[in-house]
Amino acid sequence: MNTMTEANRLAVVGRQKMTPSEAFVETLVAQGVTNVFGIVGSAYMDALDLFPLAGIRFISVAHEQGAGHMADGYARVSGRHGVCIAQNGPGITNFVTAIAAAYWAHSPVVVVTPETGSMTLGLGGFQETEQLPIFSKITKFQAHVNNRARMAELTSRAFDRALLELGPTQLNIPRDFFYGDIECEIPQPIAIERGAGGEKSLDQAAELLASARFPVILCGGGVIMAEAQAAAIKLAELLQAPVCNSYLHNDSFPARHPLWCGPLGYQGSKAAMKLIAKADVVLALGTRLGPFGTLPQHGLDYWPAQAKIVQVDADAKMLGLVKPISVGICGDAGAASEALTARLSRRSLACKANATERLATIEQEKRAWESELDGWTEERDAWSREVAKGSSHMHPRQMLRELERAMPEGAMVSTDIGNICSVSNSYLRFERPRSMFAAMSFGNCGYAFPTIVGAKVAAPDRPAIAYVGDGAWGMSFGELQTCVRENIPVTALVFNNEQWGAEKKNHVDFYARRFVGVNLDRQPSWAAVAKAMGAEGQRIEKLSDVGPALRSASKAQREGKTTVLEMMVTRELGDPFRRDALALPTRHLAKYKSTAAKS
Ligand SMILES: Cc1ncc(C[n+]2csc(CCOP(=O)(O)OP(=O)(O)O)c2C)c(N)n1
Ligand SMILES: [Mg+2]
User: Fold this and answer.
1) Which of 278, 313, 336, 362 is the most exposed place for a label (fewest CB within 10 A)?
2) What angle do CA 462, 550, 269 make, to 5 degrees?
């Protein structure tokens, strides 16, 4: 029997003879890898054989896309590498969607892609496809092991670059290169410390902030990745500035802090939008100001076009990319915040003069938004009223409010792409970073469930909860097998509205309710499916059952059990995703005239 000892968790030191498989696995050990997600395949079996003795757990999943999302979730919770591996050809192409999502989420995922053997490459043998072009636009770096002697060097570089550039990297290995004898040394990880940014730009930023009368801070994902929350809080308190979360980064600033205003963007906080609209200087901390995240919402075109924008980003290419800026600081969000705090604490600040007033405005806007949310129990458009009338199911908004109230302390929540998941943005508040995992700008359905599974592996003591629409659940529920088989207990909330709701909303608003492919009729009972798969399953029909069910599912997690709560909700629909990108239909051909918008 194989036995792992503490010593096995240390990589061998010094130049010596080993096989490329050993060099690969030892480099993983040197990089601190303890978990790898994937599906077994002959292409890398020689290396896989060493995982147990190297102290690396191989988490066997249901679909490689799931493994990619799990690696993403793992990376986003831990701040360390998420690693996934699969069989050359089809196993690798199955990764693509997940890696694209990780790319836009800036997750340091290392996707290991064994490829067809070097001696048959190009001959169209078995499971062959060119694996580098496929990932070229969704990775920050691609290493191709062109010689077996370079296995450790290139493996190490793929890991270093993922953290350095904050995004997925690919390690492509011809499958025959796992075998043979080589002589090499296992490189140590390279850790690069980021600084606060250029002195001149920090001085200019301090100048702008010191003279601002209504400064507002926008905290993005960079604040989370840089562990910069404490520094951001300090700076916000010095300026007494309202703080907004960037879109889907509701965990970038603690929700109980008096200066917190909530998220911008789709289904975000009206308080945050109204406050940032008043800004004369915005400090965009660790955000690229992505175009979707600042779109008008709730009828508010809130982006302060006249304000001076100071943008801080670790990636210089993001500065001024989306929005015009006055000052760009290429730096770490935490170090830059500290440098600004140091500069500003020595100066007199114009914003001190009206701080009391500003605090009162923040409080008043937040109170107004909360009471609006309290009264916003259901959607009020004609379609929603019609479908909700006579339905015994829950209103999605009321259900989401109940979930918010029952959310366990320290919870991690992943959200999928869909109408109800989007509406949840108004009801998701967090006290600590690394708590919210959304599909971000890649926006793929099927993201949330596998991602929370990976998150749970990284943080087994935290409650792990996925918000998933029933359509997206159909894409991803296969990973329940992983939860049960690998003993990774999580909670999935499946919002059963019997439709691909987010897309149906477009049919309602733009296509005169001509529904094509949006109804999810004759679905199985998802609670029963969960039970058949060895998890717990419960159908929730009443609002009063929502809180207790979430709490008992969290308790079940502590007992090692995965629970699917099938939430029965009406077919009502919130505001659409892409009002900005759709238009009423124009038709020129006679046969399609009946579908043209009536003017
Ligand atoms: C992989 C993928 N396919 C299709 C889409 C387009 N899409 C966006 S939202 C959506 C509907 C989601 O339906 P569901 O998961 O049931 O959630 P609901 O909108 O009903 O709350 C679809 C199909 C997508 N974003 N990703
Ligand atoms: Mg649905």
Assistant:
1) 278
2) 80
Mean pLDDT of the chain: 97
Task: State the Cα–Cα distance between residues 93 and 374, nearest whole angstrom.
Answer: 45
* Atom of ligand 1 minimally distant from the CA of 396: 21
User: If you ran DSSP here, which 8-state letter would residue 263 be given?
Assistant: E
Q: How far does the centroid of ligand 1 lie from the alpha carbon of residue 518, in Å?
A: 9
d(CA 238, CA 218): 15
- With CA atoms as reference, report the closest residue to 113 among 171, 198, 52: 171
- Strand pairing category for 16-18 and 182-184: antiparallel
Distance (angstroms) between ligand 1 centre and the Cα of 98 equals 16
The gap from C-alpha 520 to its chain's centroid, in whole angstroms, comes to 26
Q: Inform me whether the pLDDT recorded for 174 exceeds 80.
A: yes
Ligand 2 centroid–CA 73 distance in Å is 23
Pocket test for ligand 1, best of 421, 424, 445 (most atoms within 8 A of CB): 445
Of 379, 395, 417, which is best to mutate to test ligand 1, by the most ligand atoms within 8 angstroms of its C-beta?
417
Per residue in 348-395, pLDDT tens?
A: 999 999 999 999 999 999 999 999 999 999 999 999 999 999 999 999
Closest CA to 565 of 554, 577, 576: 554
Output 498-502 pairs: Cβ under 8 A, ≥24 positions apart. 498/470, 498/523, 498/571, 499/470, 499/471, 499/571, 500/418, 500/469, 500/471, 501/418, 501/419, 501/420, 501/469, 501/471, 501/571, 501/573, 502/417, 502/418, 502/419, 502/422, 502/469, 502/573, 502/576, 502/577
Contact 417, 444 (CB under 8 A): yes
3-state secondary structure of 368: helix
Ligand 1 pocket, residues with Cβ under 6 angstroms: 417-420, 443-446, 469-472, 495, 497, 499-503
Beta-carbon count within 10 A of 96 CB: 16
Rounded distance from Cα 473 to ligand 1 centre (Å): 10
Q: Please tell me the distance from the alpha carbon of residue 493 to that of residue 505, in angstroms, as a whole number.
A: 21
What does the pLDDT look like over 472-514, one tens digit per residue?
999 999 999 999 999 999 999 999 999 999 999 999 999 999 9
Tell me the C-alpha distance between 502 and 504, whole Å.
6
Tokens linked to 88: 């050359």
Q: Tokens at residue 441, please?
A: 């700008």
Ligand 1 atom closest to the CA of 418, numbered from 1 = 19
Quote the tokens at residue 371.
């009471």
